[in-house]
Amino acid sequence: MNAFIAVVLVCANGIPQDACTDDKASEVRKVRVANELGCTSGWQEIIARTDLRDEIGKTSYLKTECRRVKE
């Protein structure tokens, strides 16, 4: 059975989207989810509860990824 890891990367506006990776992001949040749909929901609420909310759209942006992992 496969599971997925939902990943949200917070990158500075100066970093091109294709270069926004785990090692270049200012913050990386990961959580295991049951399916690909789980990768797409809930992130707005999580980020809205952090200090990052004031920076998103001004000095940084979010990039989301869904990574498949084998159990």
UniProtKB/TrEMBL annotation:
> Please, which domain of life does this record's source organism belong to?
Bacteria
The protein here is known as Uncharacterized protein
Instruction: Tell me which species this is from.
Output: Methylobacterium thuringiense
Query: Could you read off the lineage of the organism from its UniProt record?
Result: Bacteria, Pseudomonadati, Pseudomonadota, Alphaproteobacteria, Hyphomicrobiales
